[in-house]
Amino acid sequence: MSDLLQTVRGLAKKTDSKILMVVLDGVGGLPMTVNGETELATAKTPNLDALARESQLGQVELIGAGITPGSGPGHLSLFGYDPLHYLVGRGALSAVGIGVKLNKGDVAVRGNFATLGADRIVEDRRAGRPSDEKNAEVVARLKTAIPEIDGVPVEIYTESEHRFVVVFRAGNGGDLGANLSDVDPQTTGVQPMTATAHDAPSEKTAALVNAFVQRAEEALGDDPQVNGVLFRGYSDVPHFPSFEDAYQLNAACIASYPMYKGLASLVGMEVLDVEGEEDALDGKVQALTRHWAEYDFFFLHIKKTDSTGEDGDFAAKVKKIELFDALLPRLLALQPDVFCVVGDHSTPSKLSAHSWHPVPVLIHSEYGRKDAAVRYTEEEAARGSLGLRRGTDLMPLLMANALKLNKYGA
Amino acid sequence: MSDLLQTVRGLAKKTDSKILMVVLDGVGGLPMTVNGETELATAKTPNLDALARESQLGQVELIGAGITPGSGPGHLSLFGYDPLHYLVGRGALSAVGIGVKLNKGDVAVRGNFATLGADRIVEDRRAGRPSDEKNAEVVARLKTAIPEIDGVPVEIYTESEHRFVVVFRAGNGGDLGANLSDVDPQTTGVQPMTATAHDAPSEKTAALVNAFVQRAEEALGDDPQVNGVLFRGYSDVPHFPSFEDAYQLNAACIASYPMYKGLASLVGMEVLDVEGEEDALDGKVQALTRHWAEYDFFFLHIKKTDSTGEDGDFAAKVKKIELFDALLPRLLALQPDVFCVVGDHSTPSKLSAHSWHPVPVLIHSEYGRKDAAVRYTEEEAARGSLGLRRGTDLMPLLMANALKLNKYGA
């Protein structure tokens, strides 16, 4: 651990003040035409506008200039963990993404289904991109065929198309290492590779992986298309300082999607139950209100601003922003000492994808200077007094505004 | 040494141009009410306003986002030394704070007076917080009782209440190490700890510390309250490249308080005598004028902008800013090639304390671009063309504007 987080960790103190961080997933946008308005600028947001007039605005770049963040690194940055420093392996991120909790000593592995021809030669590294239904069928067959190997419990999870995840549980057989070579040859026309351990604790993992490959091929041998597995990316559980350890914060997560719950639990947040439909805003506010007294930091995640952007549906994204705006008074009524609205990355409808553009951030606290902003938009944020910052600056700023940081040095 | 300082050091060259850096201690502020005006914005500053119209403005963050700087780290940052990298120990900082110069091989130690009960059990780690007068009396007794130990000169200095500083002088007995364990048990109900060396050069220091503790207890045994000493934080002299070495600058300090003189001498500045009352602005201008021909860099420190902020006295802070404004023409009459106004941290009257808020910075030189600023205020600075920067960016900018840096690369 280096950097600002380490410094903040040494200064953090427990107080009664409360911080509420709302992440509007993918909220930053783009105009559809040159000099047009973004989704945020187009949306009618009277409540956000009023709040902006009493807040400080700025822009955050979650990873670095020009870098488009995935949801994992984007959130890690918002939580104050430099995603270039605090690495989450591909296997662990996949596990987190489907809501599977990794424990110490477990190893998660990213798998691809493949098509093998005569003599185990890889013909297609993605098995012709099977449907999600076919994927689930194959996973079910493998679950029956490989419930355990040598007494080590084996869990197999469907992802989508050709992708699946395997978790080898440490159980009472001792911790498993994650330092071994890939099975995926990254090319066709050759056989799958044999996994080789790079250190002693990974020898058992290599044996498990190679046994899994063999038994999977036996189990799937009658399928002409999906009849092999390739592994790439092994991870054990990431070793992060928790929110409690880093910030002295008793933190709670209010989210609907497994990925965000998983990321929050990775940093030690308590994941609260949310009732109602998958992205029910009302259920989230109810959960927040119900647990308000119990925690001093809340991460409230709202997904649909991203999904609509990913769909390239400008009007729908505008609508989702307006739905959040309508909700805002109920959040402010709880009177958080520090209230923040931000995104984990931009998702412009124009791109139908995540993008590298900085995300507007708004911080409301009693200890802010006057800022000329009158709305929460990309354009106002670019002129905001908080300036253009790394995403990892956000948590220290929220902590400072909550008067939860001691002075550095005399 | 890493970072920008190392690069600048390789490019610095000696020229005739002169740089004047004025540090208005704790100058950054906050409005007392939402969207109100800060101390700087409230002050009537016709001279600063006129200067701002011909200068470049920006904001500096001395340590990092959300981090409230102490005076030591704040000034180190202004001087171009990253305070997270160039560490000054607690003992050295205390020595510096009371104006005691450490030499190579010396060790400075922070001490607390304590109340010991039967069997040397620590009853109060701060000896009931004695008055400063009582502190001075006890220090006088210790000075008589412990002028030296084993031929090593011992200096004892009063700080305030329960705090004092001991300096063990290397003398001709060889250099002393500063890597040893504390005497302070950090709790009551136990005996003081015995200092233990963590490396060979610190073995002699540990013996000196333990002997000091024993002799102090003997000397103070008849006092029921202040009858023991606890040590915590040992430091040798920090190893910084000097201003001459880093910047090829022949630098002078004009300050009234020991802390700032000490910090300046730590980086090799010549500390000039200032006549008149403790924070006499007139005496400072006289010293500056008298020595103007002799140096090519001047650090002029003004304290009262901080003290009034610490007192929570908004009106008084405004007044101190106006006093500086009245002085400004006399400084500008010296025609420095580069003139800079900045603070070492913010001290909002609203908080009655140092704060994390960025500090407005103004740079005036012949080589600045047009900037829209019309006043030196936090709000104008937030829109300034220099942007939001780390404090360690300032010295390279001043050096560049003084045409004292060679090109990097061909």
Features:
homodimer; six-stranded antiparallel beta sheet; globular; Alkaline Phosphatase, subunit A; 410 residues; alpha/beta; eight-stranded mixed beta sheet; Alpha-Beta Plaits
Report on the architecture of this protein.
The structure is a homodimer of 410-residue chains. Chain A is built from 14 helices and 14 strands. Chain A has 410 residues and is of the alpha/beta class. The first copy, chain A, has two domains: 3-86 and 241-401, Alkaline Phosphatase, subunit A (3-Layer(aba) Sandwich), CATH 3.40.720.10; 94-235, Alpha-Beta Plaits. In chain A, α5 packs across α9. The radius of gyration of chain A is 23 Å and the shape is globular. Chains A and B meet through α1, β14 and α14 of A and α4, α5 and α13 of B. Chains A, B: It is an enzyme of class 5 (isomerase). Chains A, B: It catalyses: (2R)-2-phosphoglycerate = (2R)-3-phosphoglycerate.
